[in-house]
Amino acid sequence: MSPVIAQDIQPTNRLFEQIIAKRDFDALDRVYTKDARILPPGAPTISGRENIKSFWRTAVDSLGVSAGKLETVEFEATGDTGFEIGRGRLDFVSGAASLEVKFVVVWKREDGAWKWDVDIWNTLS
Asked: Is residue 114 within 8 Å of residue 32, measured between CB atoms?
């Protein structure tokens, strides 16, 4: 992964972690493109930032998520589009065992910043 690209995408991944911890879901406007889609495990595709915000707000609250951590394994970009393969972890308020996930994100440049355009993940179990 190019160090320049790593510097460009890592702030967005750190922002997502902060959003989860602080439950500031309106800040997802700075993570996802305006036409973004997420493909959660076992659920239909969810399109658009407002629907994505609603998904994350409900998921974090109902599961009792206390924190999230993302780790980039690979990133490759061509022009204004790229893809990331990574690992993630969700921690819970209850102290239950963390949930480990793997993910793929298709990134796009929007308004001069790298943002998530397509986000898909599943558990490692």
From this structure: no
pLDDT tens across 64-99, in order? 999 999 999 999 998 999 999 999 999 999 999 999
Domain assignment present for residue 125? The answer is no
Virtual torsion, Cα 104, 37, 108, 71, nearest 10 deg: -30
Question: Residue 24 is part of which domain span?
Answer: 3-120
Burial of 112 (0-12, 13-18, 19+ CB in 10 A): exposed
CA pair distance 16, 66, nearest whole angstrom: 13
Distance CA(74)–CA(54), nearest Å, equals 29
